[in-house]
Specification:
5 helices, mainly alpha, single chain
């Protein structure tokens, strides 16, 4: 069984959010980036039904989902602070 933290190893939620924020500043769609960061309710539901078939899904629900939600919260706070700060010319 491959362990989930391979995706998360070496990454902090702050660095991950900063990466997506950089994409936003380069013109990527805000909603598209939010979808890329988040784990959809449909995926979470599927993983919950698969818990008994593969232990990877438990790890996904316990580690990956909270990590992605944290990244999304930080990303949203960066967007909010961007919208409230004056633009430099």
């Amino acid at each position: 069984m491959e362990s989930l933290p391979t995706e998360i190893n070496g990454l902090s939620p702050q660095r991950e959010a900063a990466f997506f924020y950089g994409l936003f500043l380069r013109g990527h769609s805000l909603e598209s980036l939010r979808r890329d960061i988040d784990v959809s309710p449909d995926v979470v539901s599927h993983w919950q039904t698969m818990l008994n078939h593969d232990p990877w899904y438990r790890e996904a629900l316990e580690i990956m989902v909270p990590f992605r939600k944290r990244v999304l919260a930080i990303f949203d706070s960066l967007i909010t602070s961007e919208q409230h700060s004056p633009r430099q010319q």
